[in-house]
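Exercise 4. Each item below gives a protein and its sequence. For each, produce the structure-token representation.

Item: Cupin domain-containing protein (Govanella unica).
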Amino acid sequence: MDDFDGFNVGARLLEVRRAAGLSQRALAERASVPHGQISMVEQNRSSPSVASLRKILSGVPMTLAEFFEPDRPESDRVFFAAHELVDLTSRLHGADQAAPILFRQVGEARAHNLQILHERYAPGADTGPTMLEHNAHEGGVVLSGALEITVGTQKRVLGPGDAYLFDSRTPHRFRNIGDDDAVVISACTPPYL
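Answer:
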């Protein structure tokens, strides 16, 4: 399992970990994941989910965009056409596969310490039963569909025009419980993906 649309995740994780001067054990401790998980991914014996890879990268820290596009230059651009948004999910799911959750980023998030995403959740898409947690704040507005959002002990289904804003250190989860795609515009600072 060493190929995600032509991208060797194991080799890249090994490169990132070594550049940060971390042992597998140290990265595992910083990211709060089992030591064996780092080893399995680096050896391409395990294919991480988006949530798992994001959690591992939180120990560096590094976003998915930085992980998959290490040579992307920072930009002073102000305007972006729809086709110029950075696709953060196609490398994980392959260009020919339909991903249940799509994330498209506006510009260089790290350069501005702000990540703005256009998100699309297919019917039934779920960030997973393991709640997400990261050191940031995030918010968003649902443009279409129905998205169930759980933040800590609070849970609500949001529809078009409804919004959310919370401290991302609180465990959270996103699920599309509707029959149509749920589309969200969100922001996170500092960048997480």
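Check: Residues 93-97 have pLDDT under 50 and may be disordered.
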